[in-house]
Automatic annotation (TrEMBL):
Protein origin, superkingdom: Bacteria
GN (gene name): gmk
Protein name: Guanylate kinase
Organism annotation: Goekera deserti
Molecular function GO labels: ATP binding; GMP kinase activity
Gene Ontology CC: one annotated term: cytosol
Bilayer-spanning residue ranges: none
InterPro entries: GK/Ca_channel_bsu, Guanylate_kin-like_dom, Guanylate_kinase, Guanylate_kinase_CS, P-loop_NTPase
EC numbers, comma separated: 2.7.4.8
Entry-linked Pfam families: Guanylate_kin
Protein family according to the UniProt entry: Belongs to the guanylate kinase family.
Domain (Guanylate kinase-like): residue spans on this chain: 6-184
Length: 198
């Protein structure tokens, strides 16, 4: 029985690199690409739509999802929890269509553990100076908060070697197209050059 060519692709990278912007561009250019919607225990922000930006749930429901293995990955940030419901991802892949997750490094590592066949893509900034500029431009945070954020970003950048592919976000449209190319490429064990008899 032939294996489906659909593949789970995880996009991760340091804070401030533009993951959300690149995924939004993918959706705009390729509405057929399915992007997982994360679940969170935090309250909706103004303009956020339940089921579109996040699935907003109570702590008790999130606890139940964790206890019953219903999350592919989950993590806690700033006192709120975020996770990827596993059922919609499985349904998408079973239908033979690629699935895209946009998550943080901690979640990407969990996916690697639970779904080793997943393709992990690291979104990198054009340069460290550019990332510093983006992070510094996020608001008037105290220097110690900025320094902590930069230290985390450096640690996240150092993890690029754990990923299957690296996409540099030097141009949002180009990065989006490169990501779609990775999404739609057949898994390595199904590529013609790998199918020759031994």
């Amino acid at each position: 029985m032939a294996r489906p060519t659909a593949r789970l692709t995880v996009l991760s990278g340091p804070s401030g690199v533009g993951k959300g912007t690149v995924v939004a561009e993918v959706r705009r250019r390729h509405p057929e690409v399915w992007v997982s919607v994360s679940m969170t225990t935090r309250r909706p922000r103004p303009g956020e739509v339940d089921g579109e930006h996040y699935h907003f749930v109570e702590d008790e429901h999130f606890d139940w999802m964790v206890a019953n293995g219903e999350l592919l990955e989950w993590a806690e940030f700033a006192g709120n929890r975020y996770g990827t419901p596993v059922a919609p991802v499985r349904e998408q892949l079973a239908a033979g269509a690629p699935a895209l997750l946009e998550i943080e490094l901690q979640g990407a590592r969990q996916v690697r553990g639970r779904a080793p066949e997943a393709q992990l893509v690291f979104l990198a900034p054009p340069s460290w100076a550019e990332l510093v500029s983006r992070l510094a431009g996020r608001g008037s945070e105290p220097p110690e908060v900025q320094n902590r954020r930069l230290a985390i970003a450096q640690a996240e950048l150092d993890a690029a070697g754990e990923f299957d592919a690296v996409v540099v976000n030097d141009d949002v449209a180009r990065a989006a197209e490169e990501l779609v190319g990775l999404l739609t490429a057949p898994p390595p064990d199904l590529r013609p050059e790998d199918s020759a008899p031994e």
